[in-house]
Specification:
InterPro entries: DUF1918. By secondary structure, the protein is mostly beta strands. It has one domain (8-63): SH3 type barrels, CATH 2.30.30.440. The chain is built from no helices and five strands. The protein has strands spanning 8-11, 21-28, 37-41, 47-50, 56-59. A five-stranded antiparallel beta sheet has the order 4-3-2-1-5, with no helix packed on it. Strand 3 (37-41) and strand 4 form a beta hairpin. It is globular, with a radius of gyration of 12 Å.
């Protein structure tokens, strides 16, 4: 997984009742865009360092206007 500042990180809910979380990548640790990422979460306006798991994917800046469909 590679990302750039401004890309969105989408984490799908993996358990019943969990909702999708969407955040904007505001910082990179590695110049090559590999994790971890500093993410500003839309749902509660806080920032955290994230090591994305298999339930996460990146929506690039070029695709940011593409609606996120449910899985």
């Amino acid at each position: 997984m590679k990302a750039a500042v401004g890309d969105r990180l989408v984490v799908e809910g993996t358990r019943h009742g969990e909702t999708r979380r969407i955040g904007v990548i505001v910082g990179l640790v590695h110049e090559d865009g590999s994790p971890p990422y500093m993410v500003h979460w839309e749902h509660d306006e806080h920032e955290t360092m994230v090591f994305p798991g298999p339930d996460a994917h990146v929506v690039t800046e070029e695709r940011k206007d593409t609606p996120l469909t449910t899985s």
